[in-house]
Amino acid sequence: MAAQGKQRSLAVFGILVAAALLIPSWCHMGKLQCHFCPLQTKEAPCFNLTTECSPGQHCATSRGFYGAYHALSQQGCVDRQLCDGAPRVVSYMGVEYRVRHECCCRDKCNMAPASESVLKMLLNIMAEKEEYAARVLRKRLWGSCEDDYNTPSPSASVS
Question: What is the arithmetic mean of pLDDT over 68-86?
Fold first, then answer.
């Protein structure tokens, strides 16, 4: 019973956050459009929502880990400084998680792969073991944002 109440609370919170992000987007046209799903447990359902990024933001699929366990997921816009592949510590419901943002630069390019997807599993392994290889693979799959990071493009050394 308590679990159902918690899920309803998370769903209501997600709808409120979505409304807060979508209402301003109706006032601005021509900006990057991204899939949106609030930070929540990875098993929670996401509705087909879209949000609009502010200048200096990219679409992102974010994953939160508790140790090696992928516990949280999120989709939306993030500041481009968060797209460097480095994990950030985020507190969610009193627990700290390591969150990584996988960014892309085209409209609605941040759709998360299905949870049983081999590609998603490989990207998570590479992100933990070989960040450079993961960045190159994400760049080829989802489009490059490298021009925004003030770092040399890794594509020059990978064929």
Answer: 94
